[in-house]
């Protein structure tokens, strides 16, 4: 069984004006699709093609050395983007809701304080990567960042290990058509697209 590209859960224009339709279409149909294609090429005919993607990227040490980089980059890309589409949505933004709102206040003092940390992590990530809010080893929310398509589930690879409940793509392909070199502007605007119901669902699932 091969990994498959999940459909965008809304129209490509649904996140405008925060993210333009052309960026969404290229990002999903081309970039994410390429990660899926390359991941499948790497794991075809191995036991790894039947693993759940989160389990696969959390166990890169089990992948043979000659395939590990391909699985790390493309498996990470597949997981990261599958999450990214889900935690955004039309009519998103505003203040966090539900249980995650309380956890944010506990960990960071306020939503604004958390946003500032995430935006700083994203703006400070040299080159391409992601900024994340994770449930860390101590069970509390924390902000971290990874290069390339690395993911906090990756042991010994990610800057900090944990379960992401939210992540923002800071590769240029995520924002360049609309924001050009202004990554901080993209990050500041991005929160208007966040689907807090979806983030709450991830938070609940991660806590078990
Ligand atoms: Mn991307």
TrEMBL record:
InterPro entries: Mn/Fe_SOD, Mn/Fe_SOD_BS, Mn/Fe_SOD_C, Mn/Fe_SOD_N, Mn/Fe_SOD_N_sf, SOD_C_sf. Residues 96-202 form the Manganese/iron superoxide dismutase C-terminal domain. Mn(2+) binds at residues 27, 81, 169, 173. Coiled coil: none annotated. It catalyses: 2 superoxide + 2 H(+) = H2O2 + O2. SUPFAM superfamilies: Fe,Mn superoxide dismutase (SOD), C-terminal domain, Fe,Mn superoxide dismutase (SOD), N-terminal domain. It comes from the Bacteria. Residues 3-88 form the Manganese/iron superoxide dismutase N-terminal domain. Belongs to the iron/manganese superoxide dismutase family. This is Superoxide dismutase. The lineage of its organism: Bacteria, Pseudomonadati, Thermomicrobiota, Thermomicrobia, Thermomicrobiales.
């Amino acid at each position: 069984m091969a990994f498959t590209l999940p459909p965008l859960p809304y129209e490509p224009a649904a996140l405008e004006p925060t993210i333009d339709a052309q960026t969404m279409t290229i990002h999903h149909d081309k970039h994410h699709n390429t990660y899926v294609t390359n991941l499948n090429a790497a794991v075809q005919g191995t036991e790894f093609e039947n693993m759940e993607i989160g389990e696969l990227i959390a166990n890169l040490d089990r992948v043979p050395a000659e395939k590990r980089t391909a699985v790390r980059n493309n498996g990470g890309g597949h997981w990261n983007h599958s999450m990214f589409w889900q935690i955004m949505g039309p009519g998103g933004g505003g203040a966090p809701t539900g249980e995650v709102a309380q956890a944010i206040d506990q960990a960071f003092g306020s939503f604004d304080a958390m946003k500032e940390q995430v935006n700083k992590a994203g703006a400070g990530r040299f080159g391409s990567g992601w900024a994340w809010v994770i449930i860390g080893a101590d069970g509390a929310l924390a902000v971290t960042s990874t290069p390339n398509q690395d993911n906090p589930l990756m042991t010994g690879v990610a800057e900090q290990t944990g379960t992401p409940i939210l992540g923002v793509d800071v590769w240029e392909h995520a924002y360049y058509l609309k924001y050009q070199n202004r990554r901080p502007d993209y990050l500041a605007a991005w929160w208007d697209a966040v689907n807090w119901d979806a983030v709450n669902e991830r938070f609940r699932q991660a806590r078990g």
